[in-house]
Amino acid sequence: MKNIITKSIGAGLNTLAHIAPAKTAQLGFELFCRPIRVPINEKQQAFFNSATKESFTYNGNHIQTYRWGTGEKVIMLLHGWQSHSYRWKIYIEALSKDHTVYTLDAPGHGLSGGKMLNVPLYSEVIREQIKRIGSVDTIITHSLGGFATFYAFYRNPELSVNKIVALASPGEAQEFFDYFTSALRLSKKSTQLIVEYFEKTFKVSPAFFSAPVFASTLKVPGLIIHDEHDNETPFHHAERIHRAWKNSKLIKTKGFGHNLKSTDVVKEVVHFVNDPLSLRFNTEMSISNQR
């Protein structure tokens, strides 16, 4: 059923491209940037109620943030596409004992406002949150949160952080764009219209957005963790980011998938946060799911 709906949307855009090209471009771009909002259940809301809730407004959107703990060092957690702050529960419980931990729901996600999200928008929200907090020791990211963080520091080198963790980060926006156009079976005309709208909006092509390029400018230590069988963001992206990011350590996992839900992964991240000497630059290691 999902494939039928997807193909029907693509067919509709392909037809509209001959009748109203400007509308096709706008609708296609908005569809590319529009996540499905994952609902928050009672259990998740109860956990959020244990936090100090704060918010700010960016570009007209309400941005929901949460804070746990009162430690001197500040940790900032950033989720990925079609997720929200609850994905960090186990990390929050492990880190908030000794640190102050912040999370936020990206635009179009969780309890934040808006319907759209893309790397530039997410990076701007990240920048604003860092400025609001002031001093951040470590940023821990998952998936699109990592890509957007790389771009935030690429665009704003004045931002300050001591360490960055990237879990399952994507590598290239062009790859997402190619998947999007393929899944919808968009015609060359429809694709070109959407690309032109993208370039008009961001003043660059989709190919400009490259995580390895952005990460190559980072001077701070980094920890990259990625599963070798990640079927959403292929492992080779982690290798390329690692090679570009001079002060980084790469951990390859097996059996944890894109979400990397494992106590072993949590332990590695917490160790990296708490022990700045634990990182041997440009090293690689592996951990596997033995169950």
Structure description:
It is a single chain. By secondary structure, this protein is α/β, with parallel strands linked by helices. It has 2 domains: 1-32 and 173-208, no CATH class; 43-172 and 210-288, Alpha/Beta hydrolase fold, catalytic domain (Rossmann fold, 3-Layer(aba) Sandwich), CATH 3.40.50.1820. The chain contains 11 helices and 9 strands. The protein has helices at residues 2-19, 21-32, 42-48, 89-95, 119-133, 144-155, 173-183, 188-202, 211-215, 236-244, 263-274, and strands at residues 52-58, 61-68, 74-78, 100-104, 138-142, 163-167, 222-227, 248-254, 283-288. The protein has a 9-stranded mixed beta sheet, sandwiched between helices. The radius of gyration is 19 Å and the shape is globular.
Kindly list the characteristics that best describe this protein:
291 residues, Rossmann fold, 9-stranded mixed β-sheet
Per CATH, the superfamily of the largest domain is Alpha/Beta hydrolase fold, catalytic domain
Rg, rounded, reads 19 Å
Average residue-wise pLDDT: 93
What is the β-strand count?
9
Using the alpha-carbon principal axes, give the shape.
globular
Q: Biggest β-sheet: count, sense, barrel?
A: 9 strands, mixed
Q: What is the CATH topology of the largest domain?
A: Rossmann fold
